Amino acid sequence: MDKGATPADARSFVVTNRSVLAIAVPMTLAYLTTPMLGLVDTAVVGQFGDAALLGGLAAGALIFDVVFTTFNFLRSGTTGLVAQALGRGDELEEQAVFWRAVLIAVVAGIVLAALAPLVAIAGQKFMGAEPRVSEAMGVYIRIRLLAAPFSLINYAILGYVLGRGEGGLGLMLQLVLNGINIALCFLLGLKLGWGVAGVAWATVTGEFLAMLLGLAIVVRRFRAAPSLPRHRLLDMAAFLRMLSLNRDIMIRSFSLLAAFALFTRQGAQFGTVTLAANAVLMNFFLVAGYFLDGFATAAEQLAGRAVGARAATPFRQAVRLTLFWGFGLAGAATLIFWLGGAGLVALVTTSLDVRGVADIYLPWAALTPLSGVLAFQMDGVFIGATWSRDMRNMMLLSFLVFAVALLTLAPAFGNHGLWAALHVFLLARGFSLLTILRLRLRTAFS
Question: Which UniProt keywords apply (predicted)?
Answer without folding.
Answer: Membrane, Transmembrane, Transmembrane helix
